[in-house]
Amino acid sequence: MADGAQEADLAALLARVADALERLAPAAPKTANFKLADAFVWQGAGSFFEPVARVNRVPLALLTGIDLAAGQLLANTERFQRGLPANNALLWGARGMGKSSLVKAVHAEVSAQSSGGLKLVEIHREDIATLPACLAALKAAPFRFIVFCDDLSFDKDDTSYKSLKAVLEGGVEGRPQNVLFYATSNRRHLMPREMVENERSTAINPAEAVEEKVSLSDRFGLWLGFHNCTQDQYLGMVRDYARFYGLDVEPAELERDALEWSATRGARSGRVAWQYIQDLAGRLGVTLDRV
């Protein structure tokens, strides 16, 4: 009788342990229907791909002042779509100069050429640790994917960069053949300077101490730098936007107004130009439809 009670208690204990392990185990990615949309957002907490009905983007032709970077990223993406060798890309540099806009515009351009065969998947910075699960789900899909992380950077004591580092090049399997990784960052080495200096000053071997973190950016074969634009480039962006959206403003007035707008912002960039165009269109009673 005692043996039977002990066996029952043991069975109950094992059942509770099994339930606890199931709760701790990461959820398996839900099967995604990638035919629903051309773009998705990976939700790491729930391990699923959320379709995006309408991507917030501008046409590639309107991203002026970054012609060299645009040409390189477009060519790299076209090669990837054709099944040719292509590099992961890091777009780094000045704020508001079109880094994330370029990724989305290039995807739209190449996706149109391939009849929707190229998908864009955005992963949030805070979900980088779940990147392996994301890629495992993409690997089996009959499409090609650009996985895109906007404003990627790592702070002190943040170890999630190791997941990205292994996926990009260092792991046994690496990234799937049907996946390319694009990231934007304000930092060329994806970490603040003081973090690197602190690691260097406190280490027994300063060079080796920062190698693991600094080498992350080396995993991107294509580095595209973005720099603050000149006044002429800024005004060129404004004129292109005004022409594209049919904003009827006398050129000299448009220039004066745009320069005054940039002066109040203390900056000239593609983002500032777009913000000015939104304000101008609102004053003129014109609706701006992004493609």
Unreliable spans are none
Largest sheet: 7 strands, mixed
The name CATH uses for the topology of the largest domain is: Rossmann fold
% residues in beta strands: 5-15%
The pLDDT mean sits at: 83
* CATH C-level name of the largest domain: Alpha Beta
Cα-atom Rg, whole angstroms? Answer: 24 Å
Can you tell me the overall shape? elongated
> What is the H/E string?
HEEHEHEHEHEHHEHHH
Strand order of the largest sheet: 2-1-4-5-6-3-7
Helix content: 40-55%
Tally of helical segments: 10
Distance N to C terminus: 75 Å
CATH superfamily (homologous) name of the largest domain: P-loop containing nucleotide triphosphate hydrolases
Structural class: alpha/beta
> Which CATH-level-2 architecture of the largest domain?
3-Layer(aba) Sandwich
Based on DSSP secondary structure assignment, what is the total number of beta strands?
Answer: 7
Number of domains: 2
Please characterize this protein's 3D structure.
This protein has 291 residues and is an alpha/beta fold. The chain has two domains: 39-226, P-loop containing nucleotide triphosphate hydrolases (Rossmann fold), CATH 3.40.50.300; 231-284. The protein has helices spanning 2-24, 67-81, 99-113, 131-139, 161-170, 193-202, 206-218, 231-244, 251-265, 270-284, and strands spanning 39-43, 48-52, 89-93, 118-123, 144-149, 179-185, 222-226. The chain has a seven-stranded mixed beta sheet, with helices on both faces. Strand 4 (118-123), helix 4 and strand 5 (144-149) form a beta-alpha-beta unit. Helix 2 packs across helix 3, helix 6 (193-202) runs antiparallel to helix 7 (206-218) and helix 8 (231-244) crosses helix 10. The longest helix has 23 residues, at 2-24. The chain starts with a helix and ends in a 7-residue tail after the last helix.
